Amino acid sequence: MNRAVTTERITPNSGFAKAILGESGVDVNLCYQCGKCAAGCPVAYVMDYPPAQLIHAARLGLEDLVLSSKTIWLCAACETCTTRCPQDVDIAKVMDAAKILGVARGYRPALGEVRAFHKAALANVRRFGRMWEAGMIVSLKLRTRRFTKDLDLGKRMLRKGKLRLFPTLRGARRAARVFSRVEKAEEEREST
Ligand code: SF4
Ligand code: SF4
Which atom of ligand 1 is nearest to the CA of 32? Predict the structure, then answer.
């Protein structure tokens, strides 16, 4: 459902498109608003701003609107939009950049449970080398404190053998190396 935009509560930030460019390498000013990204997005129907609107808002410097939107947290990173864009605007990357900027700039995620999911999933892969679903679910429940949500689904998955009760550590060392390389690169980038 789209929200009406009022000038009273939005202060344009003229450097915002540049910040997105710095974080993602994507120039949102290439967008000419054809709407192909929004037309192909499988989750646009639940977003507060469809992808084309969000890109336009980024161009206009509407930082508050973009960084506090549900859209950036609902994006499933399927890259349909990116593939469809005639201007090669990597919209999926912009969504990720907006999440990173939002967290760095102190915005409370519009959908806290999605961020909790990201954190639980990354911590899981870092520790076990690949996703250990049962452990990830426990970690997510502890973070969100929604202990009974999706209980039936969990039981069904267990019955069908889709949830491994114990992790394998295959790939754990390699994953740890990847994570520490990324952390190092981030530290270097922040210090420059
Ligand atoms: S598909 Fe590309 S050019 Fe068209 S609205 Fe989306 S971002 Fe803009
Ligand atoms: S990457 Fe995100 S914004 Fe783009 S089509 Fe997929 S869900 Fe929609």
Answer: 3
Closest CA to 52 of 96, 95, 102, 103: 95
What CA–CA distances, in Å, run from 109 to 10, 42, 84, 100, 135?
18, 21, 27, 10, 24
The tokens for 67 are: 């960084």
Tell me if 38 CB under 6 Å of ligand 2: no
pLDDT > 60? residue 7: no
Q: What is the pLDDT of residues 53-86, one digit of tens each?
A: 999 999 999 999 999 999 999 999 999 999 999 9
pLDDT at 187: 87
Tell me the domains of the chain and their CATH numbers.
7-104 (1.10.1060.10), 112-191 (no CATH)
User: Tens of pLDDT along 124-180?
Assistant: 999 999 889 888 888 888 888 888 888 888 889 888 888 888 888 888 999 999 999
Ligand nearest to the CA of 27: 1
Ligand 1 nearest-atom number relative to CA 55: 7
